[in-house]
Design brief:
Helix content: 10-25%
Number of strands: 5
Radius of gyration: 12 Å
Shape: globular
Low-confidence stretches: none
Order of helices and strands: EEHEHHEE
Number of helices: 3
Strand content: 15-25%
């Protein structure tokens, strides 16, 4: 089980667990993290699973590719250097404890 720490816009944190190979988006949906809407179900056809990877984790998570970067143009929340589509981040043991900040606007 890999732990993900979701930080809500109000600063509250919630830690959930998911199996390796699960996307952060799916872990959020499976555990009632409502700020991750995921309208396309993980097909990278929307930006409603937008999140911010904590600075301390960006190197381990990796950078977004060009297709993900293009899709983030449709995000309602502010796009930052640490912005990612949570559907594109597959969990692994190396990401155990990852911290993900949720945007205050999603849709």
């Amino acid at each position: 089980m890999v732990e993900i720490n979701f930080v809500h816009p109000d600063g509250n944190r919630r830690t959930v667990g998911a199996a390796p190979g699960t996307s952060i988006m799916q872990a959020a949906r499976d555990n009632g993290i409502n700020e991750i809407i995921a309208e396309c179900g993980g097909a990278m056809a929307c930006a409603t699973c937008h999140c911010y990877v904590d600075d301390a984790w960006t190197d381990r998570v990796g950078r977004r590719d060009d297709a993900e970067d293009d899709m983030l143009d449709f995000a309602e929340g502010e796009v930052r250097d640490t912005s990612r589509l949570s559907c594109q981040i597959a969990l692994s043991e190396a990401l155990d404890g990852v911290i993900v900040h949720l945007p205050d606007v999603q849709g």
